[in-house]
Design goal:
By secondary structure, the protein is of the alpha/beta class. The chain has 11 helices and 12 strands. The strands form 2 sheets. The chain has an 8-stranded mixed sheet with strand order 6-7-8-3-9-10-12-11, sandwiched between helices. Strands 2-1-4-5 form a 4-stranded antiparallel sheet. The structure holds adenosine-5'-triphosphate, iron/sulfur cluster (SF4) and magnesium ion.
Length: 342
């Protein structure tokens, strides 16, 4: 049974907003095929904040672009699997339907705020534009009021709506991006490292604001981050990605304090992971992620894993479920280390 199905046992399916099953995504480049997502399973419930963590190149942004069907033309390709947003089959939905979904049902805050801002439009016009596209029955007056409301919500004076992006600091630009992303109160917000470029105080303010919006609108969020403090303070559950797969998933408590741990997560979190520690950054792990155009047999982590066994070099590990906690590692399989066999 795929991991997401196990995870959903007992959960009312109508509460689920997003379900990704056995997703495979490649980039077809002149140098060859890059296997960016390799059998990814993930589900997000309404109102839930899911932290998505993993080293650079793990496939986090590719997952987000796949959900929005915004992979680069001709190069990015969803090979197989399924992505469901409530009743919509994202992979097969007509482009016209995707246009309605983007910015309305799902919004994304991109890694670099400047990629989502138009330098020749004022920030007010940019917020108004999303509202006009998705709310054709709103009057000019209502749109203006909503623009002011969104700017106020992200801590920017509405008087500045006639300014252009270059007139704002990095942190303020990111707030504008967040205001645009939230203008239509999406059901799902994918925030790709939304605060990396901000200083810590502004970071905390922006995250606090996003939490407030979640409370107010029951927005589900996927928060992509390298910052463990951000995960511990803002997320309900966590997915750890490696080489295009979710290799560990659970509640924040499962991931930080669970008895079982994936060796990759143990490496990333350092030796004594603790929800209360001030430690924020991921620990560097010796070695590199495998070349995504030439993935190894067996467990993708085996070349770097301190617990590697013979089986790891030849056989991909299955997802093992411990209540709400999933770990994809042979270490956790019955019969290993004296574990009871099923
Ligand atoms: N347009 C592209 N063409 C070719 N390969 C790509 C393209 N975009 C991403 N990749 C490759 O796909 C893999 C996954 O990349 P992705 O950007 O999804 O990783 P990420 O987890 O978001 O990393 P980061 O933390 O650095 O943002 C990487 O090996 C990357 O080099
Ligand atoms: S399956 Fe093997 S190589 Fe992979 S993380 Fe587990 S112990 Fe390490
Ligand atoms: Mg990325």
């Amino acid at each position: 049974m795929p991991f997401s199905s196990r995870m959903n046992k007992g959960i009312n399916m109508s509460e689920q907003i997003l379900e990704i099953k056995d997703l495979h995504v490649v980039y077809n480049t002149d140098e060859g095929t890059v296997y960016a997502i390799n059998g990814m399973d993930l589900s997000v419930e309404k109102g839930q904040v899911l932290g998505l963590v993993g080293e650079t190149g793990a496939g986090k942004t590719t997952m987000a672009l796949s959900v929005l069907r915004l992979l680069p033309d001709r190069i990015g390709e969803i090979k197989s699997g399924s992505i469901r947003l409530e009743d919509t089959d994202i992979i097969r939905a007509p482009e016209a339907e995707m246009k309605k979904i983007r910015g309305n049902k799902i919004s994304m805050i991109f890694q670099d705020p400047m990629t989502s801002l138009n330098p020749i439009m004022t920030v007010g016009e940019q917020i108004a534009e999303v509202l006009e596209i998705h709310n054709r029955d709103m009057t000019k007056q209502q749109i203006e009021e909503r623009v002011d409301e969104m700017l106020t919500l992200v801590g920017i004076s509405p008087e500045r709506k006639t300014d252009y992006p270059h007139q704002f600091s990095g942190g303020m630009k990111q707030r504008v991006v967040i205001a645009i992303a939230l203008a239509c109160t999406p059901d799902l917000l994918i925030a790709d490292e939304p605060t990396t470029a901000l200083d810590v105080t502004i970071q905390d303010q922006v995250l606090q604001m996003m939490r407030g919006l979640k409370e107010k609108f029951n927005t589900a969020m996927i928060l992509i981050t390298h910052d463990l403090g951000v995960v511990a303070n803002n997320c309900d559950s966590v997915a750890i990605m490696y080489a295009g797969e979710v290799i560990e998933y659970g509640t924040v408590e499962d991931i930080f304090e669970g008895e079982e741990r994936h060796p990759y997560t143990a490496g990333l979190f350092g030796s004594i992971p603790d929800l209360t520690k001030k430690e924020r950054r991921l620990h560097p792990i010796d070695g590199l992620m495998p070349d995504p155009s030439n993935l190894p047999e067996g467990c993708a982590f085996h070349e770097r894993c301190p617990k590697c066994m013979d089986i790891c070099r030849t056989t991909k590990p299955e997802a093992m479920q411990f209540g709400t906690h999933m770990i994809r590692c042979h270490c956790c399989a019955p019969g290993i280390d004296g574990r009871e066999t099923a």
